[in-house]
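BUG: 3D viewer hangs when loading the predicted structure for this chain

Environment: internal workstation, default settings.
Expected: structure renders.
Actual: progress bar stalls at 90%.

Input used:
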Amino acid sequence: MTTDLGQVQVVLIGEFHDQRDHHRLQLELIKELHRQGKKLAIALEMFDLEKQHILDDWVRGETPLKEFVARYQQGWSVNWAEYDSIMLFARNNRIPLVALDAPPDIVKLVTYKGAGALGYDSLLRLPENTTTEMLPSYRKFMSTVFRTHDIPDFMFDNFCAAQGLRNSAMSERIAGFVRENPQKTVVVIAGVGHVMRRAIPSFISKKGISHKIVIPKVDGLYEELEGDDMDYFVSFVE
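Structure tokens produced before the viewer hung:
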């Protein structure tokens, strides 16, 4: 698997955000690609596009740990301990970190008011060509995810538009980085619902970007995943 992952431009590694084993898997694959001599960048769902400067300062060693953790916690509710080893490995090895997600206020706007509420100012804050589109098969998947959110049923279309916008924005961000840094292998750290083939990969594949998808297995969760949603489905053995 690791040899295969080393042959592509983008490696997408999914996660359930609070699963420690998933983050250990991500770190081990990052370390293995680094051992292979790949010039890496790590793209992160938990930082939105407008927080890139925070990641740049961290990798350059200009931000104390305590301050960086505080900034992380301002935008992401998952315990810092889930990601600390990845963040520290990146800093210690000067591996660029890439902020991926759409700004949360724009996501919230689309969730509650729909894609039609996106104005010119909002679009300027997103990568060019960002859309709210999604594949019909992904919309079907979203119907399951929707039930885990405290959002009224009549807002399902808006919810799908917001998730489509997030996937599209992250894809455009990845594509732009690959275009500007063709020598680097980009490791994408994001939720399973974003890295599955029907999501981010459906966008970057249209741009001719070679990629592989690794999804960790959790019994009883997301059983509606299809075999084509990933290249590798990793189980954990006690």
